[in-house]
Automatic annotation (TrEMBL), chains A, B:
Alphabetical list of Pfam families matching this protein: PPK2
Gene Ontology BP terms: polyphosphate metabolic process
UniProt superkingdom: Bacteria
Protein name, per record: Polyphosphate kinase 2 family protein
Alphabetized UniProt keyword annotations: Kinase, Transferase
Amino acid sequence: MNAKNQRDWSVDALDVLRVDEGFRLADVDPESSPGHPGGKARGADDLARGAAGLDQLQERLFAASRTDATDASVLLVLQAMDTAGKGGIIRHVVGSVDPQGIMLTAFKKPTQEELAHDFLWRIEKRVPTPGMIGVFDRSHYEDVLIGRVRSLAPADEIERRYGAINDFEKRLTDAGTRVVKVMLHISRDEQRDRLMERLDRPDKHWKYNPGDVDERELWAQYMDAYQVAFERTSTDYAPWYVVPANRKWYARLAVQALLLETLEGIDPQWPTATFDVDAEKARLAAG
Amino acid sequence: MNAKNQRDWSVDALDVLRVDEGFRLADVDPESSPGHPGGKARGADDLARGAAGLDQLQERLFAASRTDATDASVLLVLQAMDTAGKGGIIRHVVGSVDPQGIMLTAFKKPTQEELAHDFLWRIEKRVPTPGMIGVFDRSHYEDVLIGRVRSLAPADEIERRYGAINDFEKRLTDAGTRVVKVMLHISRDEQRDRLMERLDRPDKHWKYNPGDVDERELWAQYMDAYQVAFERTSTDYAPWYVVPANRKWYARLAVQALLLETLEGIDPQWPTATFDVDAEKARLAAG
């Protein structure tokens, strides 16, 4: 099974979306669909096929971890401006996987107790255990994104955090976790359209927060903060991936492809029995 | 929207599966499909339609809780003998819901730290917050099931627990949680067939545990322990439901119906906007 060959990708998503040396966020077109020939209908077909593949790979990963055959796990980190589609990714991509294999955490504004600790304290508690796919809806990167834009901490503390994040992610990786960091990239105009739709529909009002418009005023500063975060924390062991997200079908397919290719890289196998199969059959038949 | 009318149920699952005064587990046929005209194909259609209804109701419940419009939540407790299909229920029924609205916990053999506390200590920590659907894969009932059968605690401690469970569930209910306690009921012969299938398929070996056959020897004692638990803890505020589970299509449909009817009972509504919609539209259009 290979994500690229099985579906319509012309290249690996892990290659084409990766943030490497010299990357500039300003050069990424949020309308684009790199690596995929495109088309909403074709995208939907691909997504369904990919879901079946993801389902199999996840079950194998989980099974392998039950008998200590692997310490591998996956951590998907989702960061984005409001309305960029994190929720849709969780619902349609993560949601296609058996919930028993998913460890999902939505990080909100830190509580008083969380603020009293180092910024990684609450993150450590939600790191996936072997065999699991962890998903962070927002993450420790908030502490160098809104943290930087809104000066929620002194400048030297923000600086310290980039190094602390790299150390943390290196430790996770050494322990068997594949860290997949995704920024969903929409344009400022697209955000306006999506916020307007929430205002137009009474069943979407609950998703609208007047504070979102305040953050929107700081768009350029946020893009700068993302650029700096990429430069400081896109490492060999835990690179960033920027996913153009104005087209929802593409963003979902791209994140699914990143997960598929990561699991294919692990290549988990069904564990062999740790008991005598024939003896167990005899025992079971007898009673 | 009404679960009974929308689909093929002739009665409410909440009524027909409920454990009332005089209930005897020994009288339930695990092959039966009470309240549903039956048929695997028809069941699959119903399950797909039910998933769409569940999806809508869950989103409304979640939305209503975001603006303090409700403190309601749901807690689905799943108990069963091995192979009865808890995993399938989680995958196919719970798995059809947006993962952002689900709080799933699989309770394993207690750790040393958990054993050092009262048996409800680890349970309390995983109670669903408002707007969420909590799911317990095994639960505090293990402490009066295997706890009783294997004498893991003194007899008077087991006796104490029934009352403690009722007090706990009353408190949950008073705080807005609908507690839906489900026992999936298979026959001993069906379990043998399912265990044998796990032994026949190398990709299922990881699900087989020789200890399962030891528990199987205690089948009658387990059925007695369930009967006592029903008599002591099936209350007005938190009744038990026994779901015949030899037919997987029926068990899934029945648990889905229990969830649907419970959510319909809550009848969550889209919350009204807490901001001036027109003013926000103007502000958004301007920037």
